Amino acid sequence: MSARVRLTVFRGEVGQEDTAANYIIQSWPLDRPAGLNEKGLILGVFPLGRKSCDAFANIKSNNYLLYSMAAQYARRHGWDDCLVLNSLGRVADSSIANLFYVRGETIYTPSLSEGCVAGVMRRWLIESLPSAGFRVEERPVAPEDLILAEEVFISNAIRGVRWVGSFGGMTYGNRMVKDIKKVEHEGIG
Fold it and tell me: For the chain, what is the radius of gyration of the CA atoms?
């Protein structure tokens, strides 16, 4: 049985003197689909806010406003998710996941310096895929890079690897994403 556990750590009373940490631990059962989503996700870009690339950008925190607004924007436009851009106009991540794309035989993902969340699944893919024969490269990603991509996928620890079928009028295949999903299932399954 799989489960989701969330640890939230926060400061107690407001004030300079109080440095004691408080915490909440929550858990839920998790049903993670074993196979690749049959219908490719539809992505758009959230134009109303930008993510900073500062020292706190890679932390998943309770400051979720930008991501919440991006998710609402996606729903209003009939998309499955929205890409969140950083202060430089490049892709940081999506409202719920890290982004990857395939061009040629290389898998690209935004580097941590681009402001993306340092996701557990992102790190696992970056560390595990090379030993399975895939080439992975972290780099700045402009929305235009996805127009030239052959395949696009997003990932997070809860839903795993999910294939993106379209973005900005482009449609994508999933040949390599299917193989990546197999690696995920064998490694985590």
Answer: 17
> Are the CB atoms for 118 and 59 separated by under 8 Å?
yes
Residue written as tokens 């395939």?
102
Distance CA 129, CA 43 (A): 24
Give 112's DSSP letter: G
Six token digits for residue 155: 């990932």
CA distance 185 to 2: 13
Interatomic CA distance for residues 32 and 179, integer angstroms: 18
The identity of residue 11, as a single letter, is: R
Enter the pTM of the model. 0.89
CA atoms within 13 A on the CB side of 9: 5
pLDDT tens sequence across 82-111? 999 999 999 999 999 999 999 999 999 999
Averaged pLDDT of the chain: 91
Q: Regarding predicted confidence, which is higher, 86 or 183?
A: 86
Domains in the chain, CATH or no CATH each? 32-188 (3.20.10.10)
User: CB count, 10 Å around CB of 164?
Assistant: 29
Tally of CA atoms within 13 A in the half-sphere of 85 that contains its CB = 14
